[in-house]
UniProtKB/TrEMBL annotation:
<dbReference type="Pfam" id="PF00106">
    <property type="entry name" value="adh_short"/>
</dbReference>
<comment type="similarity">
    <text>Belongs to the short-chain dehydrogenases/reductases (SDR) family.</text>
</comment>
<dbReference type="InterPro" id="IPR002347">
    <property type="entry name" value="SDR_fam"/>
</dbReference>
<dbReference type="InterPro" id="IPR036291">
    <property type="entry name" value="NAD(P)-bd_dom_sf"/>
</dbReference>
<dbReference type="GO" id="GO:0016491">
    <property type="term" value="F:oxidoreductase activity"/>
</dbReference>
<dbReference type="GO" id="GO:0016020">
    <property type="term" value="C:membrane"/>
</dbReference>
<protein>
    <submittedName>
        <fullName>Decaprenylphosphoryl-2-keto-beta-D-erythro-pentose reductase</fullName>
        <ecNumber>1.1.1.333</ecNumber>
    </submittedName>
</protein>
<dbReference type="InterPro" id="IPR020904">
    <property type="entry name" value="Sc_DH/Rdtase_CS"/>
</dbReference>
<keyword id="KW-0560">Oxidoreductase</keyword>
Length: 246
């Protein structure tokens, strides 16, 4: 049994991952913006064998709400074995190019808010001296592609932050895993023209995430073939990269 704090608990990947833990009678503190969706997730987890499930409504971009949320989670769970940070949005790149406020809002959704949460939670985990911080980043953060470089920049910031945090917390017994999904069939990607051969469902991603949290993997590409794909993309020289549409 694990005691799990999930931020962005109504996202498809978070829900699928929580279901895996629920079958082992884990207890949950679920955080998201939508109360009704949280209640549906809670009922689903309890039907699958979850123990106590506590719900907390919070917008992750509300930085002042982070510390009270953590305090509430500790009051409910007693201790935290795993934190899964899974919130985010998939912005319209063109809209971000045309409007500064839109760009900054989306960067906050996908980058700044994650870093702020990690800062607060990591300080507690360092005192606790055990547990795992699992953070959903993205393969998009590996290189600034024209089609989504605002989103990619935010995820690159998260990935780099997690790398430093992992080295810091390793010394006190806390593990940080950076999770980099590729194309996943979720409501967030619905309607996008994605190559079918590269798309996986959230349940497949969840199975891999749970396995590698237990293995204490450092950086996880999901599925694994994305490591090869992104290695090739990263190795493309600039004079070629800037001429192609990715």
């Amino acid at each position: 049994m694990k005691r799990v704090l999930i931020i962005g608990a109504t996202s498809a990947i978070a829900c699928a991952t929580a279901r895996k833990w629920a079958t082992k009678h884990s207890e949950f503190f679920l955080v998201a913006r939508d109360q009704k969706k949280l209640q549906l997730v809670s009922a689903d987890l309890q039907s699958r064998g979850a123990g106590k499930v506590t719900l907390h409504v919070m917008d992750a971009t509300d930085i002042d709400a982070h510390a009270p949320m953590l305090e509430a989670s500790l009051a409910a769970l007693g201790q935290i074995d795993v934190v899964l940070i899974a919130h985010g949005t998939l912005p319209d790149q063109r809209a971000c190019e045309e409007n500064t406020q839109t760009a900054l809002k989306e960067f906050a959704n996908n980058g700044t808010s994650v870093i702020a949460l990690l800062t607060v939670i990591a300080n507690h985990m360092a005192i606790q001296r055990w547990g795992t911080l699992a953070v959903i980043s993205s393969v998009a953060g590996d290189r600034g592609r024209p089609s989504n470089y605002l989103y990619g920049a935010a995820k690159a910031a998260v990935t780099t932050f997690c790398e430093g945090l992992r080295a810091r917390l390793f010394k006190v017994g806390v593990h940080v895993i950076t999770i980099k999904p590729g194309f996943v069939a979720t409501p967030m990607t619905q309607g996008l023209k994605l190559p079918k051969a590269l798309v996986v469902n959230a349940d497949t991603v969840a199975t891999i995430i749970v396995e590698h949290i237990d293995k204490k993997t450092n950086v996880l590409y999901v599925p694994r073939f994305w490591l090869l794909i992104m290695t090739i993309i990263r190795c493309l020289p600039q004079f070629i990269f800037k001429k192609i549409n990715l």
